[in-house]
């Protein structure tokens, strides 16, 4: 059975896709996608020996060698352009996912859906998607085993029914008597769909961020460095905005 986190990636796919799961580890996602019909074929890509062997064992023990190929290599090096239409990358930092996409750009031709789950650095990834004209069509947030995860599904601009201008235009959130306007940068940071959906997990994530910022502020207040004041000012501003967003949701 898939974890809640991987199940969300599975559910954000359309049926019958040709999937590449990059950094597949035990190949749990490709196996589940073939078994459910979400994928017709799959490639499990792995950089490292141990997980690569684990993926091969998993595919063999599920008897799906005819439909899932396990390939060893860095990022999108393991696929040819045009070979797959859907790519999943989960369980890594946003910077690493961004790096894999940037380095493998030529392989993205013909790929109509990216489903990504950064552990941290979601803002870096959203910025890359935006700069490269990928439009986010869906976002999810979930909590599992004491951790909070975000999942982002994006499609190339030419393939999307909405545009990035629409996704990132300043957005009003809240209720009639308490509304705030979020800037494009704030939407890149918090997630254009997640801010609209709100919910307990979203609130919890940003309460944790507030805690982190307060800890940094406490240590900055003890610093004599000239930059400390400026940095503290910026963080206080950020803190205030996050609190405003949360106050619209409770
Ligand atoms: N995707 C699975 C999941 O979400 O449960 C596994 C996540 S695991 C934490 C990250 C995997 O990515 C590791 O197995 C690691 O070997 C692999 N990995 C890291 N960098 C990679 C790269 N550049 N290309 C392919 N795989 C990579």
Explain what you see:
The structure is a single chain. This protein has 250 residues and is an alpha/beta fold. It has 10 helices and 9 strands. The chain has helices at residues 4-11, 28-36, 49-61, 94-103, 122-131, 164-168, 184-190, 194-197, 200-220, 226-247; strands at 17-22, 39-46, 68-72, 86-92, 113-118, 134-144, 147-156, 171-175, 178-182. Strands 3-2-1-4-5-7-6 form a 7-stranded mixed sheet, with helices on both faces. β1, α2 (28-36) and β2 (39-46) form a beta-alpha-beta unit. α1 crosses α2 and α4 (94-103) packs parallel to α5. The relative contact order is 0.10. The model has no long low-confidence stretch (mean pLDDT 96). Bound molecules: S-adenosylmethionine (SAM). S-adenosylmethionine (SAM) binds at residues 6, 22-25, 45-48, 51, 74-75, 90-92, 100. This is tRNA (Adenine(22)-N(1))-methyltransferase. It comes from Paenibacillus provencensis. Keywords: Coiled coil.
From the N-terminal CA to the C-terminal CA, the straight-line distance is 34 Å
- Please bin the fraction of helical residues: 40-55%
Number of strands: 9
**Ions, cofactors, ligands: which are bound?**
S-adenosylmethionine
Output the radius of gyration. 20 Å
Side by side, the strands of the main sheet go 3-2-1-4-5-7-6
Global shape: globular
Poorly predicted ranges: none
Q: How many separate helices?
A: 10
Share of β-strand residues: 25-35%
Mean pLDDT: 96
Characterize the largest beta sheet: strand count, sense, and whether it forms a barrel. 7 strands, mixed
Structural class: alpha/beta
| H and E order | HEHEHEEHEHEEHEEHHHH
């Amino acid at each position: 059975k898939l974890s809640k986190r991987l199940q969300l990636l599975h559910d954000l796919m359309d049926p019958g896709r040709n999937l590449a799961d990059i950094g597949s580890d035990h190949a749990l996602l490709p196996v589940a996608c073939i078994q459910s019909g979400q994928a017709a074929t799959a490639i499990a890509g792995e950089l490292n020996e141990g997980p690569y062997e684990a993926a091969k064992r998993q595919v063999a023990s599920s008897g799906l060698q005819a439909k899932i190929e396990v390939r060893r290599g860095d990022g999108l090096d393991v696929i040819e352009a045009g070979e797959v239409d859907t790519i999943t990358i989960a369980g890594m930092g946003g910077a690493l996912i961004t790096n894999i996409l940037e380095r493998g750009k030529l392989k993205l031709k013909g790929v109509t859906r990216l489903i990504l789950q950064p552990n941290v650095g979601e803002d870096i990834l959203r910025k890359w998607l935006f700069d490269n004209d990928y439009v986010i069509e869906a976002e999810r947030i979930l909590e599992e085993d004491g951790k909070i995860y975000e999942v982002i599904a994006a499609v190339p601009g030419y393939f999307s029914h909405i545009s990035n201008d629409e996704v990132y235009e300043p957005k009003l959130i809240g209720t009639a008597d308490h509304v705030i306007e979020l800037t494009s940068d704030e939407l890149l940071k918090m997630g254009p769909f997640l801010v609209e959906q709100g919910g307990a997990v979203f609130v919890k994530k940003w309460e944790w961020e507030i805690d982190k910022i307060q800890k940094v502020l406490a240590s900055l207040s003890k610093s004599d460095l000239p930059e400390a004041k400026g940095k503290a000012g910026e963080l206080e501003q950020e803190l205030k905005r996050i609190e405003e967003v949360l106050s619209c949701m409770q």
